[in-house]
Amino acid sequence: MSVITISSGSFCDKDTVVRNVLKKTGYRLFTDDDVAAAAGKISGMPANKIKSAFSAKTSVFNKFTHEKERALAWLRLAAAKMLVEDNLMIEGFAAQLIPKDISHVLRVCLIADMKFRISQACKELKCDEKEAAAQIRKQDEDIAEYVNMLFKSKDPWDAALYDMVIPTDKMKTDEITELIEKNLRSEVIRPTDSSKKAAQDFILAAEVEVELAKEGHSAGVSARDGSLTLTINKHVLLLSRLEEELKTIAGRVSGVKSVETRVGKGYHQTDIYRKYDFEMPSKVLLVDDEREFVQTLSERLIMRDMGSAVAYDGESALNLLNEEEPEVMILDLKMPGIDGIEVLRKVKQTRPEIEVIILTGHGSEADREVCMKLGAFAYLQKPVDINLLSETLKKAQRAISGKK
To answer: What is the mean pLDDT of residues 278-282?
Structure first.
């Protein structure tokens, strides 16, 4: 049977349409939560962490960890495996993961003009028009960023992405349901040997993408009859070495007959391709008010394949902890506002899993004793030998891995 995917703007009466179509067709619904739960089950990652890949926000550490790309790889595999079922509807961000060459998928987009959406939002959220408009803009930004990431299109309602774009403010729900059901019965949407084969190719491509992600790589993957094309979208110094490594990993996946590589449009941009090394610290937060020092330190760590972000005072560091998930913190003691000891105390009270390395040029023996009692992983003095700091970071990472 054919598959339906439903993408929608917020406050476009999507739930009513989905309910009616399901009642009329008898299809089974899979939401973003369902796809994320399935991806979490096969990956071992928390479902809420995987679902964060749908958000426009990207972690400051992502260029080192590829967490969003790894989550999307597992989400694609979960969605691909769902396509073997009959009478299926996929609704939400996950709907965009299905390749267009799977022709037995009816891709539906529900949208309405802003006046209608604001009116709906005011009723549902019990808020004024200004707050309603702000909520809609924020949700549209998430969708636009997500669609741009997948398709390099800044318009999430671009008709080229869908088979049908339906204005829910201009049609009654029964009319919309009838229109979807009518198109679902079309010969064009019926499964064929070719479209079923495309679905199997999607599964194979998703399996390969997951295997690459497990090895710390991020590359575009497409499959056709067991022949793979891997697309490298960031510049790398030793291209031939990377190509061979990717081919070796992909070639181990059952069903792969051949592998070729190519460079994509993003290859000649300034971004550098980074393989994620699971053994190296890649979520290091540097907290120091000496801007030149901490920026230089960050660059030196990056040269050693350690990912880092920077905060220039204690308050900024604590705020960043609410948004990000650093694993190691390198913390100065003497800073304006909240000092390092107070930051350490608050970190260990709220996020005890974070290992904190004190790096100071002004601390005393008494300070060292206080910091170690509060739970600091190590206490180092400036100027620090970069090799000593690197080794301390690796020890902290091993401690974190051991706890996990």
So the answer is: 86
Give domain 284-403's CATH superfamily.
Response regulator (3.40.50.2300)
Nearest to 83 by CA among 165, 206, 172: 206
Provide the whole-model pTM.
0.88
Instruction: Identify the weakest region by mean pLDDT among 162-171, 258-267, 336-345.
Output: 258-267
Q: For the sheet containing 227-232, what is the strand order?
A: 220-224, 227-232, 258-263
The yes-or-no answer to whether 193-268 and 284-403 have a common fold is no
- CATH topology (fold) of 193-268: Histidine-containing Protein; Chain: A; (3.30.1340)
Single-letter amino acid code for the residue at 122 = C
* Other residues' Cβ atoms within 10 Å of the Cβ of residue 18: 22
Length of the chain: 404
Query: Do 146 and 56 form a contact (C-beta atoms < 8 A)?
Result: yes
User: φ, ψ for residue 366 (rounded to 5)?
Assistant: -65, -40
For the chain, what percent of residues have pLDDT higher than 90? Answer: 80
Query: In whole angstroms, what is the distance from residue 356 CA to residue 200 CA?
Result: 47
Half-sphere exposure of 90 toward its Cβ, with a 13 Å CA cutoff?
27
Other CB atoms within 10 A of residue 345 CB = 16
Q: Please state, in angstroms and rounded to a whole number, the distance separating the CA atoms of residues 170 and 184.
A: 21
Q: How far is CA 338 from CA 3, 287, 318, in A?
A: 56, 11, 10
Q: What residue spans define the domains of the chain? A: 3-187, 193-268, 284-403
Superfamily of domain 3-187: P-loop containing nucleotide triphosphate hydrolases (3.40.50.300)
